[in-house]
Amino acid sequence: MFYREAGDFKTSYTDDSQTFPIRFDRYRYYAVLIVAFAVIPFVINDYWVNAVLLPFLIYSIAAIGLNILVGYCGQVSLGTGGFMAVGAYAVYKLMTAFPEISIFIHVILAGGITAGVGVLFGLPSLRIKGFYLAVATLAAQFFLVWLFNRVPWFYNYSASGQISAPERTILGVPITGAQTAPWAAYLFCLVFVVACAIIARNLTRGMAGRKWMAIRDMDIAAEIIGVNPLKAKLSAFAVSSFFVGISGALFFAVYLGAVEVGEVFGINKSFLVLFMVIIGGLGSIFGSFAGAAFLVLLPVLLKNTLVGGLGWPTDLAAHLEFMIVGALIVIFLIAEPHGLAQLWRVAKEKLRLWPFPH
Amino acid sequence: MKDMTPEGYTTEDGRKIGGVVMEMKNISLRFGGVVAIKDISFDIRQGEIRAIIGPNGAGKSSMLNVISGFYHPQEGEIWYQGKLRPPMKPYEVAQQGIARTFQNIALFEGMTVLDNVMTGRIRQMKAGLFAQAIWKGKAEREEVENRAVVEKVIDFLEIQHIRKTPVSRLPYGLKKRVELARALAAEPSILLLDEPMAGMNVEEKEDMSRFILDVNDEFGTTIALIEHDMGVVMDLSDRVVVMDYGRKIGDGTPDEVRNNQDVIDAYLGVAHD
């Protein structure tokens, strides 16, 4: 009833091309932002931050990044885990080499470094497409993990071969290290998530996004209207890797604190983020959030109901969880190949006409 | 042929046609042993509607692909706006102001009509990635300015009502029109149309013919088109090139071409003795 554009006239092209053209959407977006920034930090505890909120926020950034590459530009990548590792090791090296510079800048720089690496591994996309490109990015995944395992310079010659984040503060508040308060880590990640989402949205609704989507939908036609395929594909790899690098940096520095690269940033991570993108919806920023929420929350929910609610043994619940999540993914892909974002769109279409659908 | 000065000529309906924009000189194109185009020369003049016709397999589409940079001829020269054109990639040709449509529609199915037409403005939109990321300054200004141009084209081709519809949901005839809109949005100096009326019914053909004439009339756009419907070609075009088996067998006004014995033979067949 409130959700419709009737009476909401646009008088300029700026108004018409804004992110939330419908007024109700816009207010809901502001409401979510206010709750996220001004309410949640005061009510959360350690469990919520570490089990739910931080993984959700950080995976959202990774999913947005991968969605730009796969969903918008149509270049399949299985190297997400490797690129997250680049972000993590970049931020580690920066943190230890320049301790006086703010961690905030380090995370952004780590994203930039990952963007460069992403462009490098994106070069094959100029020659190969589809599954073949996926295999080429798979090579990136294994090569990068191997590199970080084998070259001691990356982990500062530590005996364990692990990297662990030293304590860094912003305005005197610790963001990384053991002393970090849940709300500080949460807010730090939230700032990055919001900024990344806005940047991704701006890029995808403008000319850069149109170029990417043109390459995705029909690369020959894209070229004939003047899209330089080299620039378009490599810029998609760069932007995508930038976001993935930031998420990797946050994953290591803020969320885990210590990382063994093969375990944390292995091929499983690549698949997990890819599943998020596919389940959430290819080519949708909202879908990236929905997919991340789905795959982060579902295991937590299942564990709580099976172990906490029904009192089943933990190992049984853990295996059941695999089966249920797997089955849900399959069901999802059959029933709604366009993902949660499409469900959301359909719901909104219905809502626009409600309560008088005829 | 009519008196054709280097500066141009005047058509029967009084339109002024300018000098030569593009000149093909002795173009030959081979695929391995197959000769697709053999030693063809013709020119396209400013503001005219130039048709390329010929039976199936005559090399018309290959000719268009040579112009738009998909194929690179083994021999011959392309002169564009008074300069010899070096071998170019298709996107570089587009950046020079040559837009085209395809025989089987080449739209971006996952995007809305508006976004599809906006892609036509690539040549004019130059804001960098960073400006676009924050959506301020040059990026925003360009977006609004070019949207205004695009809306004019949308208005012109009467597709306002489907502006925000994904292209994949549109019927064939409308898709053809959206593709024309995308090419027009580029404000091209030469517009190449590859069978703009293929697969259309009479009514849609009439619409499309009207749009082509209007585009040429209002914007003064130079148009080169391939078409199979002889009635349409003869009515629309100022000059016609006729191809057969990769060779040029006729060139001139529709009337001249109609009375050319080689052309009649090519279309009706001739007894070989």
TrEMBL record, chain A:
InterPro entries named among the record's database cross-references: ABC_transp_permease (IPR001851), LivM-like (IPR043428)
First-listed, main subcellular location of the protein, grouped into a coarse class: membrane
GO cellular component, one term: plasma membrane
Keywords: Cell membrane, Membrane, Transmembrane, Transmembrane helix
Membrane topology qualifier: Multi-pass membrane protein
Source organism, top-level taxon: Bacteria
Residue ranges of the TM segments: 27-44, 50-69, 76-95, 101-123, 130-148, 183-200, 236-259, 271-296, 316-335
GO molecular function: branched-chain amino acid transmembrane transporter activity
Localization terms from the record: Cell membrane
Pfam families documented for this protein: BPD_transp_2 (PF02653)
Keyword Transmembrane among UniProt keywords: yes
PANTHER family: ABC TRANSPORTER PERMEASE PROTEIN, HIGH-AFFINITY BRANCHED-CHAIN AMINO ACID TRANSPORT SYSTEM PERMEASE
The protein's name in its UniProt record: Amino acid/amide ABC transporter membrane protein 2, HAAT family
From TrEMBL, chain B:
CDD domains given in the database record: ABC_Mj1267_LivG_branched
Cited PROSITE patterns: ABC_TRANSPORTER_2
GO molecular function term, any single one: ATP hydrolysis activity
UniProt superkingdom: Bacteria
UniProt xrefs under SUPFAM superfamilies: P-loop containing nucleoside triphosphate hydrolases
InterPro entries the UniProt entry points to: AAA+_ATPase (IPR003593), ABC_AA/LPS_Transport (IPR051120), ABC_transporter-like_ATP-bd (IPR003439), BCA_ABC_TP_C (IPR032823), P-loop_NTPase (IPR027417)
Keywords carried by this UniProt record: ATP-binding, Nucleotide-binding, Transport
Pfam families the record matches: ABC_tran (PF00005), BCA_ABC_TP_C (PF12399)
Protein name: Amino acid/amide ABC transporter ATP-binding protein 1, HAAT family
Source organism (scientific name): Roseovarius azorensis
